[in-house]
Amino acid sequence: MAKQTAADVMTPAPTTIDQTETLEAAGRLMAEQDVGVLVVRAGPTAVGVVTDRDLVVRGLAAGLDADATVQQVTTDKVITVGVSDPVETVVEVMRAGAVRRAPVLDGNVLAGIVSIGDLAVERDPDSALADISRARPNR
C-alpha cells in the first residue's frame, strides 16, 4: 500500500481572498462558503492565511472596522507543505510550526489546504477531533 500524501488528505481548492479586500468581505465569504479560514492572495500568489478568529481578535477586538483590509489581520508567516509530501511529514511540519492548517502547494500553485481535523479523520478516526471534524455544522 502506498504511503498517504498531503494530496490524499487535503481539502482541494481552498477558498481564497485578495489581501486588499475588507474584513467585512472576508467574513461574508467565510459565511457563504461555511469555512473558518481563507488563503490570502496578492494577485495570483498566496501570501498568508486569515481565520475567523483573526477577524475577531486582530480585527474587531483591536479596534479595526469592517472596512479595514484583510492584509491588516493576515498571518503572513505561513507553513506550507507539498502535494506529494508524506502525511508523516505534514504532521511533523505542522507540529514544528504549531499550526492548525497548512496550505498545500503543487510547485508554486495552491492545490489545497490540510487541517488538523483532516489529519485526525485519516490518522485517528476514533478520536473526538475526528468525530467533530466529520460532524455537520451546528448552525
UniProtKB/TrEMBL annotation:
Q: Which residues form the CBS domain?
A: 10-66, 73-132
So which domain of life are we looking at? Bacteria
Q: Name one Pfam family in it.
A: CBS
Keyword terms: CBS domain
Q: Does the keyword Transferase apply?
A: no
Is Transport found in the keyword set? no
Q: Which PROSITE patterns match?
A: CBS
Q: Which PANTHER family match?
A: CBS DOMAIN-CONTAINING PROTEIN (PTHR43080:SF2), CBS DOMAIN-CONTAINING PROTEIN CBSX3, MITOCHONDRIAL (PTHR43080)
**Protein name as catalogued:** CBS domain-containing protein
Natural source organism? Promicromonospora kroppenstedtii
